Each structure stands twice: as C-alpha cells, then as structure tokens.
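Good morning C.,

I know you're traveling, so I'll keep this short. The sequence:
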Amino acid sequence: MEVRKIRYTEPVILCVDMDAFFASVEQQNNPRLRGKPIAVIGSGMRTVITTRSYEARKYGVKTGMNIYEAKKLCPHLIFVVGDNEKYTYTCSQLQKIYQKYSPDVEIYSIDEAFIDITTTSHLFGGVLQVGSLIKSDIKRQFGINCTVGIGPNILIAKLVSDLSKPNGLRWVKGEEIKSLLEDLPVKELWGIGNKISERLNKLGIHTCGDLARTPASFLRSHFGIIGENLKEMGLGICHRPIQKEEPLPKSIGHSMTLQRDITMDEEIQVYLLQLCEMVCRRARAYGFKGNTLSLTIRYSDFKSNTRQKSIHQPTNNTHEVYHHALSILKDMEIKSPIRLIGVSISKLTVDADNLSLFDDYSRQRSLYKAIDKINDTFGDFKITWGSYIKSSLGSKVISPAWRPEGVRNISVK
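The tokens, ready to paste straight into the viewer:
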C-alpha cells in the first residue's frame, strides 16, 4: 500500500518534551523504582527536588521542594541522587533521533526540543506519523515516554505539548488556534510568567481570548515595547524561528548552594575563587570575555542580593574576575550567614586570542590553557589553585538549560 505523501503549505513545528525526564531515566535503569513515587535530587545535604515521577505528583510533590516538605506529602517517597552524565548522554542521543526526521532541530533544553518538519513530513507519511515515529523511537531505544505537541509555530507547539502531557501526541492547525486559545488562562502561554500574568489579570485580561481582543496601544501603554508581543501571543502568533545553532550567550555563570551556611571571610573567598574559575574556564573554552561581573549572595533566610560591576577591559582571566568579585563582596557588607553564592560575567565579546605584547600576560594565558587542558582531560579541579584546595563543591544539579553543544554544555562530571 502506497503511503500518501502530503505537503503542507503552513509551517509545521514539533515540540518534543520528555515526560518527567530525570525520574523516567532512573525508573528505566532500575526496575525496582518503576511504578513507585520517586524524586530526583542533588548530592548535597541541602538539595531540592529537580524532577519527580508521575506517581509522586499525585501526592502534590513538586519541583523545587526540599526533601522534608516532600516527605510530609508522600511518606513513602523514594529519593534518588541524580546522575547528570546519564541525562546529558541521553539528551545527546535524542538529538540523533530528531535529526533522522529533519535537519532543522533546536535542542531547547536538556529535556525539550523543537523540530521543523515543514519540508520533510511527507517523506515519513505525514505530520502525525512523524510524531508517532519519534515517540516509538524514543520508547524503543530508552524505554521512556515523551509528549509531542505540533503547531504552526513554536509558541503553539510548546503550548500543545504542555496541554497534552503525559505521553501525548496532538496537532493543532492554524485554523484551530483561535478556539484553542479563547478560554485559556494567559499564564499558560510560554513566556508569560507569574508577574506579567498578575498584571494582565489586574487589567481585566484573564484569558488568551481577552488578550487577543485588547488593543496593542493599550498593552504598549502598560507594558512598553513587549505590549506588541503580548498582543501577538494572544493571537497565537510567533515569529521566532528554529535556532539550529546556539545563539550568542548573554552571560556565563555558575552558582552553588553550600553544604552549610558560612560567615567567615576566608571561607567565602575560597568558594568565590572556585566559582570565578568555573565561569572563566567555560568562557575560555568557548572563546568569550566578559565586560560586566555579577555577584549573587543568598542568605540563610533565603533573601538574595545581587550586585554588578563593569570591568574596564573584557576578560576571562580567573584572578582578574576574582579581584573584582572581592571588591563587590566588600561593598555588600555581609552580616548574615550565606547559603548560596553565584558569579556570572555578561556583555560578552569574542576572545580574539591575540598574543599580548606584555610577557606577563602571555605567560598567564599559557598557564590557564595548560590548567584547562589537564582538567578537561582528567576531570574538574584535578589541578587547582592552592587557595581552595581544601574546599568542596556545593550541590551539583544539572541546569534544565544544558545543551549538548555550545557554551551551555556545562561539565557534569
């Protein structure tokens, strides 16, 4: 029987969203966890839940909860320390599956991807057939489920995948968008967070239908330049294309939740140097320098303080960044115990890697390259600065924004 090959004139975008990704991987790798409520956590004592299984969600267990809150809701909840290398490997292999069906693939996060099949779906029997094939490929290779949402742009594809979880497959065509959005709360749209949703609600805009009927001039008067975008979102319009190549990053940063609250300057400085090295090592690896430094401190009462400082010359030099971070820290006047520290550089420029006329700078650059090469080969901090040789890293939790390529490919060893 010959498969009917239909070409579609409107764009067709798939959003493939893995169902409870980390938890599903752990359940598949350990049959004793299947069908049971589990929560994936970091390795530190002060970790929070990064993903929970669907069995755990029935009890109200949520991402971001600490283990004590989760245990109150589900006393028989099983905690599993996450294996970041396992998840990143799976993400890399998932990318190969997607590329069987289209060259236009965007790995949006570690558990989510957009695929443009506008010009390729007819080769595989049609749009829904592509979604079905991807789901079966993933199930066969990894034993886990995903949800596939399909629409004429990434906004609708993302929305449809969210509405169809778990293990769903749904295609919403252009002529169906208006009815889909009419009674949908604005907070359900990708890109509208709690704060914007609350502001819209106060203006009497509760559903996407309300948003679509609101004049753009009114939205601009209350939200500025994004008012026009909000209007288009209410209509289901999105012009953002698939990004096959990772866009230039706006910042490079790392943060760590400490194993215990600290107050001593010496301890703070040790962790600060370690974070500056992590940030600058990644910047050097991908050829970037930063012109603005940000330091974030979160205290034991969970209140946070972030300060920025402009750097005269863009840099990815660990000790230069550390020196500026220390000056910010001094101005912050730390008076309460610290539970989290974060460092990032922004206003990035490409590092031309030109040799300096000054011998000291050239020698320092060569030293950093040698240290980076050793640590890339043998693992993080196998060779390190004596100033923090006695310190230990805080809880390491993989960011959802991890990607298999580019600057967001953060070491997870």
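Safe travels,
E.
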